[in-house]
UniProtKB/TrEMBL annotation, chain A:
The keyword Ribonucleoprotein does not apply. This is Tubulin epsilon chain. Residues 262-401 form the Tubulin/FtsZ 2-layer sandwich domain. InterPro entries: Epsilon_tubulin (IPR004057), Tub_FtsZ_C (IPR008280), Tubulin (IPR000217), Tubulin/FtsZ_2-layer-sand-dom (IPR018316), Tubulin/FtsZ_GTPase_sf (IPR036525), Tubulin_C (IPR023123), Tubulin_CS (IPR017975), Tubulin_FtsZ_GTPase (IPR003008). Residues 49-260 form the Tubulin/FtsZ GTPase domain. Keywords: GTP-binding, Microtubule, Nucleotide-binding. It comes from the Eukaryota. One of its GO terms (molecular function) is GTP binding.
UniProtKB/TrEMBL annotation, chain B:
One of its GO terms (cellular component) is cilium. It is found in: Cell projection, Cilium; Cytoplasm, Cytoskeleton, Microtubule organizing center, Centrosome, Centriole; Nucleus. This is Tubulin delta chain. Belongs to the tubulin family. InterPro entries: Delta_tubulin (IPR002967), Tub_FtsZ_C (IPR008280), Tubulin (IPR000217), Tubulin/FtsZ_GTPase_sf (IPR036525), Tubulin_C (IPR023123), Tubulin_CS (IPR017975), Tubulin_FtsZ_GTPase (IPR003008).
Length: 468, 446
């Protein structure tokens, strides 16, 4: 079975990453204890994210083999010491070797240019060595999972540098990025710059991007996690928010890790959901919200409700409104359940398609369904929805506006020009504009807006005619 | 004489396994079951001997399937080789002939095709091993679905390899057309590319459609009074029963057993018409069999009405349609009848299938249909069983659907970059479109 390497960059990336490793271990542990205590073996589903190392000989064991020491398939990068040091003092430390940490002391100062250009060049060799070392320990490398924030300097700058490095080193391995976009009232003043500059790299080098924004994470936590106490300054505990993102990655890979009547290999996700290389932004939502202690009311009672909730904006990890504007370009659903039958899924999806979802005209069958028989730890079932929807352009328009507000005055630009040119700003903005236009174009060809004649013509090209 | 089955991809492997199970099941079904055991060669009759020789390598009372199982996903292969399921069966796969790739194709036809070229050496070696273990090859039977990446992409490549390896052997490819709206967004692209490649390299394509199989399964499940949703096993069972009714030994007028390629010769008068459709009657659930008796005339009447209605099922037919209002036309038909009785069906066939309107204008009336039967053994538990294989227009609607849907995507240039990554460019797509449009047109003009 195929393996994945997690690359976690910056403070945000490291924290989500740790949550992820914690949850991944728990998931496998609960599976093993529920089956048979004798069956503590390293199997193909464990190999997706972990190596099994024989410490005495210092070699990786192939699966299946008895469980020895598990090591994470990960590269941890941060230009500040704090978070990485706290990992080293946590119980998770045994998952990682010293070489897997790539760190500096001084930080990128919330500056994309420092992270991307300065640290990028400085650590290029080290990063590529470590990535290669991890890749060589996989018998079939399936994907790289990048986790980083978009607002800061290290995550957005160095994270996107690594992305382009991966594109160069492993052009055919799927690159899936989970970037965390900053809140509107973010305390980092330069975050619009960082986000726009980083978005350009995401658009050009990733195969699949599952954007997450802080605001919607806060919404979900305050709605569904009864144990989380809101801090005095009105902020949510980061831990619960990180749990959501970490679960997103677990659910995303569930169908390629575990058995199921409808397997979805990870590479099938971009293949089915990304019709054009640049439009690879997928809006995700998870039902139910992935907390063990979730108030009972938020766990859907039956299959039909799961699918009704699937389109509800309450569970989306991005503040957009797919119900109101735009069209679906393609949509994927990954269901984890022991009991739900294929025919029930089909019926519900037909219903959704008929009543609630507007698809782009040329891709009305743009559905991908996965069914995996292993439910998530502590929940009876879960449904992950991945929507390639044109409404994501609203996120980009908003981002562009915040960028423009700053850039009009050239505020803070001088911090960046040590490392990049002004032209880079212009290009990044132009790139974003172009992306927004591409989504608009899709909306136009789908007949939502009164289309011009040229659009109509391109939508219905007559089929080839065979002359006799 | 032997046949070699190529199980390609997930669907191919599931179906292929059922094919061998069904063959054995049929061979063990006998009027007097106590007498039979496959292990003891002296107890078996000609039919069983022919069938076993055709599909199994027999060595020291062990049966090894004449099959290559090829997949890139380990899960399905693991199930095949699982010892528990092996011990339940009377036969097994040869380890050499189970080929697993480490690289999935991710629903990408182009990626599967590339993976095929990487595994070529391996596959050909196993294939040659199979050849060495068969005295003479009758037909090669690849089984694959059109939707995914592995079965279709890798499958298309493997079929081409085998064609190069054995240019004169008969390649009968069984293809499974995906649901109209299915699990794979790019299924129509994948289907199109596969069809155009297979149309070039295979001698005949036996077409099954998931939509129809699903309908059929639903009918059987509800007939047998069970209250459960249909599943993939029901559908695979139906498919294999159809297929095996055609693969089991059948004899000509002189009561000697015919080879498969000989049977099909009459069905393929022109190299441009390669699409075969299989219709079988009676369509009953196992539970209902014991309570039913049939006459040849009613079975054939049913078949003819199914044919005229352009339907695979004997339900929901429009019985008022007359032969001159037929919704499908064919180049040739082939009837296989299996039972214990010696009655002749020629009269009935003449009555229902001797209408020139059912055939293309240039088919001479002597070539309308040919008949084969086996009179010393019925098929499974069916007292009488008739299979009709026709080279007719029925699959064209599925092809038409595939082309128009993929053309719509192609017009938007959607998803093309995934294929370009593995060197399948727009021109390759266009060539495929041209080829399949030609096939559709030539069938429509019958």
């Amino acid at each position: 079975m195929a393996q994945n390497i997690v690359v976690q960059v910056g403070q945000c990336g490291s924290q989500i990453g740790c949550r992820f490793w914690d949850l991944a271990l728990r998931e496998h542990a609960s599976l093993m204890s529920s089956t048979n205590s004798k069956k503590c073996i390293y199997d193909s589903s464990l190999s997706a994210f972990f190596r099994n190392v024989d410490e005495s000989k210092n070699t990786s064991l192939p699966y299946p083999s008895p469980l020895r020491t598990l090591k994470a398939r990960a590269v941890l990068v941060d230009m500040e010491e704090g978070v990485l040091r706290s990992i080293l003092s946590s119980p998770l430390r045994d998952l990682f070797d010293g070489e897997q940490f790539i760190r500096d002391v001084s930080g990128a100062g919330n500056n994309w240019a420092v992270g991307n250009r300065f640290y990028g060049e400085k650590y290029r060799q080290m990063l590529s060595d470590e990535i290669r070392r991890q890749a060589e320990q996989c018998d079939s490398l399936q994907s790289f999972m990048l986790i980083h924030s978009m607002g800061g300097g290290t995550g957005s700058g160095l994270g996107t540098f690594i992305l382009s490095l991966l594109d160069e080193m492993y052009p055919k391995v799927c690159r899936i990025v989970t970037p965390v976009y900053p809140s509107k009232d973010d305390d980092v003043i330069t975050s619009p710059y960082n986000s726009v500059l980083a978005t350009r790299e995401l658009t050009e080098h990733a195969d699949c991007v599952l954007p997450v924004d802080n605001d919607s994470l806060i919404d979900i936590v305050s709605r569904c996690d009864s144990t989380a106490k809101v801090n005095e300054d009105g902020r949510c505990p980061f831990d619960s928010m990180n749990t959501i993102v970490a679960n997103l990655i677990l659910n995303l890979t569930s169908s390629s890790r575990f058995d199921g009547p409808l397997n979805v290999d990870l590479s099938e996700i971009p293949m089915n959901l990304v019709p054009y290389p640049r439009m690879h932004y997928l809006i995700s939502s998870q039902i139910p919200a992935p907390f063990k202690t979730t108030a009972n009311s938020s766990i859907p009672r039956n299959v039909n409700q799961i699918f009704r909730d699937a389109l509800s904006p309450h569970f989306q990890t991005l503040r957009v409104r797919p119900q109101i504007d735009g069209v679906y370009i393609a949509c994927g659903m990954i269901l984890r359940s022991k009991t739900i039958q294929m025919s029930e899924i089909r019926r519900n999806i037909d219903l959704l398609k008929l009543k609630h979802m507007k698809f782009v005209r040329w891709n009305e069958d743009g559905w991908k369904i996965g069914l995996c028989v292993v439910p998530p730890n502590g929940l009876p079932y879960s449904l992950l929805t991945l929507a390639n929807h044109t409404c994501i352009k609203e996120t980009f328009i908003e981002l562009k506006e915040r960028f423009t507000t700053l850039y009009r005055r050239k505020a803070h630009v001088h911090h960046y020009t040590d490392h990049i040119e002004l032209a880079d700003f212009e290009q990044a903005r132009e790139n974003l504009n172009q992306l927004i236009e591409e989504y608009r174009h899709i909306e136009n060809t789908s007949g939502l807006v009164k289309s011009t004649e040229s659009d109509n013509a391109s939508a219905n090209i007559p089929r080839l005619n065979v002359l006799s | 004489m032997s046949c070699i089955v190529l199980q390609l991809g997930q669907c191919g492997n599931q179906v292929g396994q059922r094919v061998f199970d069904t063959l054995i099941e049929d061979n063990l079904t006998h009027l007097n079951p106590s007498k039979l055991s496959i292990e003891n060669r002296s107890s078996i009759n000609d039919y069983v001997r022919h069938s076993l020789d055709r599909f199994f390598i027999q060595h020291e009372n062990k049966l090894t399937a004449r099959a290559l199982a090829i997949d890139t996903e380990l899960k399905v292969i693991d199930q095949l080789m699982n010892e528990k399921s092996q011990s339940k069966r009377h036969w097994s796969y040869e380890k050499k002939c189970v080929i697993e790739g480490r690289l999935g194709s991710g629903n990408n036809w182009a990626c599967g095709y590339r993976n095929g070229s990487l595994a070529e050496e391996n596959i050909l070696n196993s294939f040659r091993w199979q050849l060495e273990n068969s005295d003479r090859v009758d037909a090669i039977l690849p089984i694959l679905s059109l939707a995914g990446g592995t079965g279709s992409g890798l499958g298309a490549y493997v079929v081409e390899c085998i064609r190069d390896e054995l240019p004169r052997s008969f390649l009968l490819t069984t293809i499974v057309v995906p649901y109209t709206s299915g699990e794979v967004v790019v299924q129509n692209y994948n289907s199109l590319l596969t069809l155009s490649h297979l149309y070039h390299s295979a001698d005949a394509l036996l077409v099954f459609e998931n939509d129809i199989l699903q309908q059929y399964a639903k009918k059987l499940v509800s007939c047998s009074g069970l209250d459960r949703p249909t599943n993939i096993h029901d559908m695979n069972n139906i498919l294999t029963r159809h297929l095996c009714s055609f693969l089991q030994p059948i004899s000509n007028k002189n009561a000697s057993v015919c080879e498969i390629n000989y049977l099909l010769e009459s069905l393929l008068p022109h190299s441009f018409y390669k699409l075969l459709t299989l219709r079988c009657v009676p369509q009953l659930s196992d539970q209902a069999l014991d309570f039913s008796t049939y006459k040849w005339s009613s079975l054939i009447k049913n078949l003819s009405q199914m044919y005229i209605n352009n339907s695979y099922l004997d339900e929901g037919l429009n019985w008022s349609l007359k032969p001159h209002q037929t919704r499908t036309k064919s180049v040739a038909n082939l009837f296989l009848a299996r039972s214990y009785d010696k009655e002749d069906i020629d009269q009935d066939l003449k009555q229902y299938f001797n209408h020139s309107t059912l055939y293309s204008s240039y088919t001479p009336s002597s070539d309308y249909y040919s008949v084969f039967n086996y009179r010393d053994k019925s098929y499974l538990n069916y007292e009488k069983y008739v299979s009709l294989i026709s080279n007719c227009q029925t699959p064209v609607s599925a092809l038409d659907r595939i082309v128009s849907k993929s053309w719509q995507l192609f017009g938007q240039k959607a998803y093309l970059h995934h294929y370009l990554k593995y060197d399948v460019d727009e021109q390759a797509f266009l060539n495929s479109f041209v080829q399949i449009e030609q096939v559709i047109k030539s069938y429509k003009e019958l």
